[in-house]
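Protocol step 4 of 6: structure prediction from sequence.
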Amino acid sequence: MKRKIGILTIVLSLLFFSYMLILPDYKSFTYVGRGVLWGESDFYDHQKFANRKIEKANDSLPFEYNLKESYIEDLLIDINYYYKQKSNTIGDAEQFFIENDTTSFIIIKNNKVIYEKYFNDYSRESINTSFSVAKSFVSFLIGKAIEDGYIESIEEPITNYIPELSNKGFEEITIEHLLKMSSGIHYNEGRLLWGDDSKTYYSPNLRRLAVEETKLVDKPGEKFLYNNYNPLLLGIILERSTQKTISEYLQETLWKPVGMEFSATWSIDSKKHEFEKMESGINARAIDFARFGNLYLNKGNWNGEQIISSQWVIDSTKRKENLNDSYYSYTEWDFFNRDQGYYKYMWLGYDREDGDYDYFAHGKYGQVIYVSPKNNVVIVRTGKTTGKVDFWPEILLELSSKLE
């Protein structure tokens, strides 16, 4: 009897979650059904979500190449990294990349590709899911929308564009607060399917989620809290100000002007609501992620054309202000426990000596676009998981310093 009840419970649970998966309304908790059936987010999520296409340029110019594979692999041998806070050295580079689920590793020095290799059955044509690397593209789009006159400034209150949030305290939140992850909006990562991470990733109506389910719990600007509602709200602002889809605006302002070699896609929440997953959803080839990094390395200039203003690149990536001691104390990221690490407009950064700095776009499972202006270097690492590496940017910080 107990066995029959157990089987019946399992069957009813499966039917319940399947029902939630197909319901069209956010308030039916469809995100839970997706989470149950799709499981933990992974490197192949671009195959699960619907998407919008971002067309490549017709006249793309490939990078110049000056490959130095043996030189790079010799440098990597002695580079330190941490796994579970224990120090290790890389040793054999190819074996290290393979064993740690790397799919691509690209280095650009002085605007030339000096290393480009693919691993674990991936190739130059393979699609990589950006995860939170997408947030740095959102930062680019905000800067471009200001430059194009669609948005007046980052100092504007977000209620200028999202009046539905008026009279709830949201008038105090500026676009800059969203960019810096200091909006004061409540966010609880949660466990399994019950937190904001799952809601902002799996909800089939992200606009509604961001407008109706957010609440202000802290004074804007007082503390850093990594929060996926911030890029969602920025996406709504971009849509309403430009009167274009996010994918269309990215294609128009970045993908075609810099001559991306491949078309890309941006995952959307659902076919019904068609809102780009602002927090995570760009699906592209690693070499085109490298192009984005190289654009920023050159302060927004691409082959003589200023794609985005150099001032926006600097403002987005360089730490300028001295923050109060408690600003980063509300996050568990070890990255901020040292004075060296900081977060600007959806880019993370390392302060170097003498006022120099590196910065990088960073996504789940160790997706990284790393830019070192002092060393004139861009490094891209993509992977199926992080492997046995605590934090890939630490490797890239050391490697970029050694490159000649």
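Step 5 (inspection) to follow. Confidence is low (pLDDT under 50) at residues 19-29.
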